[in-house]
Amino acid sequence: MSYQMYRKTLILSLLLCLFASMAYGMGKVPRTSGRAIDFTLIDLNGNAHTLSDYRGKIVFLNFWATWCPPCRAEMPSMQKLYQSWDKEKYVLLAVDIGQDRERVKSFADENGYTFTILLDSQGRIAGKYGIRGIPTTCLIDQQGNLITRIVGSREWSLKEVERIVK
User: What's the DSSP call for residue 149?
Assistant: First the structure.
């Protein structure tokens, strides 16, 4: 192969890689507002929970996993939040991504977490929500609209949730 031909092939290959990476990067961008995507998942006790059943309440929807250190770090504050708020006004749904029921139940029992933990063992709901990193928390208003999406661990408080919702 001549130098000229080699050079053209190399440039074409680089351009192809550039366009492929640009196309990949233009994938579905996670929504931060609009109607929350409805779903049904099973909790640790085998009960089905459908997001739309919680219309009329503010939903704190947290995506996490037991192996994730930042997720584990924020869960005690989520438990305090859950214990402090009016259950008629708020609901906390913690969606574990990709783990089996026994592992998640053991983790929740060991740590005394009493809020609702749902299992997204295939990661389908996390995929629909465009979750790219965990923990990610979505706050959903009483009408079922996504108010905000927060990526990363934090110390949760009722005042902070109320501030974000208003």
Answer: E
